[in-house]
Every structure is written in structure tokens, then in C-alpha cells.
Amino acid sequence: MARSQPEIAIIGGGPAGLTLGLLLCKCDIPFTIFELREKPTEEEIAKPSGMLDLHVESGLAALRECGLYDRFLQLTDETSEAQIVSDKDGNILHTDDGELSERPEVSRHALTNLLTTDLPSNTIKWDHKLLSATSLTTPSGTKIELDFGPHGKLLFDFVIGADGAWSRVRSLLTDVKPKYAGTQNITTNITKLAKYPHLAELIGRGSFSALGLRHGVTSHRLSQDAARLYTFFTLPDEDFPSSSGLSSSTAAAAKDQILQDDALLGRFGPIIKELFAVSCDEETQDNPGSLLDIKPLYTLPIGASWEHRANVTLIGDAAHLMCPWAGEGVNLAMWDSLLLAHAIIEAYEAAWRNGGSFINALDPLLQKFEVDQVERNKEKAQETYDNGQMLFGEDGAKAFAEFFQRVYSMAQ
After folding, report:
1. What is the pLDDT of residues 380-403, one digit of tens each?
2. Whole-structure pTM value
3. Homologous superfamily (CATH) for 8-79+102-178+300-391
4. Taking burial as the number of CB atoms within 10 A of a residue's CB, which of 49, 85, 119, 220 is the most buried?
């Protein structure tokens, strides 16, 4: 008996979409990933990117099932799991070497490259921006029409929205949209850290956080003697990047406004200001003419859900967008992919054995997946929110240092 061949589309080629695709590929289940970006070049992959820490029960479990765990471990020597916490003036309140951590870190580019390498090239359609998704009734049943503009409109039996915060697939299931989280983020890089040994010593080999006044300057060490800075401001104005004029300036041109404004970094200490200033100068030297990377952060409501439909679902940020305060985003996304893959594989095999409909076989499994997903993500979203309240209180440094001290005292 020939296998049923449902048309499956995965919208989004981030960690969620790539992990799901790889798991389906291992079971010879046909699918197509549609990604709006152009295929990255080797030069782009080699550039510094943010670090992701993967957790045992989620991201690491997915990599194990993909057969990539050993290769992943070879990529984790780019940075340390050590932590340094300072106050706004650079006074160190906590430091550790990460010996209790079971969350190895990898760069986003390295993880994407790892997940992509084993996928057949014809399974990913690059430079395909989804313009709209529509449910249609056809003689062969309900289909989802995906409009890719110049690439045409395509019909699919089952569509997975792994298309991030502003998911177009989500509109098929719910009107809920992300809301402003009250935080603005500036991202900058120092690619020549050896020129600044005192700053390299300050931020250490892993993660560094200088917190206070409801703001924070944080950094992750990268490979090739580089560091990435994330500077967070708690601000009520969602449109602050444009209303302040910062989004139309280069990083180097914007730094003085940020450093002199008491509502931003004006009341931070000299060493933290220098760290930020150097990152702005280095960013503009490396990318002349590029504008300051400043963006508002968004989140979906805690416990966000939708009315179940048999042929559409969501994973990753499309389902449960949250701030990065607990490091759960990529892990929940890969966990979603792992569990959804199990449901798809079981339904696919059942349809093959029984000669029935894949969608009918999948429906009860998908309903259970979504119920469990919402509960799992609700817990992590609350943890993330609570962490944000701790980190960006008036004395976030003291609260964060005390958090680590409790963790280490419990481990003794």
C-alpha cells in the first residue's frame, strides 16, 4: 500500500522550523520549509551572533533526537557558562565559573548552520516571504492557501507557523497579537576586544550583567575575541527609537545622547559607560553607515491559546513570544518541534497502516500537543516575567546576585 503523502508546510527557517524539518526528514516524511531570508553565505554565518544556552529537557533533547548532540558539543567551546553580576557602577557583586550550569551555549549562527547541514537543499525555499494565509474548502477537503507574492500561491494540507513574533499563520487561529513589554533593547558588538584588556577582564569569559535603575548593560563573550552587548532600558514609550531620534543615528553618533541622559545611562558609572561607548564606536567602525540597532521588545499574553483547527498550528515565538529573561525562547521552540514531530510521525504512520486520512489521524494528537504546549509555556512565561521583575527593579544587581547565591548555597 502506498504511503499517504500529505502536503506539509513549515513557515519559518529558525531553530523551531529547522528542528521540526530535520526530525520529519529522518522519518522520510515530506515537507517544505519556507524562509523569508535569502540563504546565508559562509561569510554571514561566520559573523558574530547572539549566544543561546540550551536546556537538557528541551533544546538538548531535540538535538539528541536529531542525531546532532555530539557535533553540537564541538561548537560549545566558543564561550564559557560563567556569570558576573555588577551594579550600575561596575562593582562586582557576584562571580562564578558556571560549574553548576548544565546549559551549554552556542552561537545562533552555529546552531542554524548545524540544523541546516543535514537537511536536503530542496526542502528549504529561501527568500519566500509569506504575504497571507487563507483557509479554503476544496473538493478534497480543507486546504490552506499560502500566498508568497512573486513565487505564487500554494495549497497545503497542514501548515505549521514557525514564523516568529509577527506570525502571519497565527492570524488563521487567533486575533491575539504581541504587546509591548515596556523594554527597549540596543544591540552592539565589540569585535576587537583584545584592544581593551580592562573591559575584557570586566566582562569575563561568559555572561556579564550591570544592572540598576531598571536598566541593564549585559554582554556575552563570543568566538574570535568578540563580545555582544545588549543594553536594556525600561521605558513606557513603545515608539522611543523614533521619538528619541536614536533609530536614525549610527551607534557612534547616538552614544553621547544615551550616556548623558539620566533617564538612560547618565547615572551609570564610568566603566560601564566606557563599555557601552566602546561597543558603539566598534559597531560603527565595523559597519559604517549602519543605523543603531534599537528595538522595543514584545511578548504574547501569558497562557495565550487559540481555538484548535485540524490543519494549522503554531510553534516557537509564533505560539509563545516572551522576553529573553529566562533563556527559554529557543528551548521552548525546539521542545515544541520535538513533540509536534512525534505527533506528526505517529499520525503519518497510522494513515499509512490504515489507508486513512493523515489529518484525521493527526487531529486528536494535535489537540493534545496544543493543550500541553499552552500549559508548558504558561509556566515558562510566568518564570520569564518574574525574572524580568527581578533584573529590572531599582536594584536589579543586588537581587540577581542574591539569586545566584541562593542557587549555590542550595547546591552545597
Report:
1. 999 999 999 999 998 999 999 999
2. 0.93
3. FAD/NAD(P)-binding domain (3.50.50.60)
4. 85
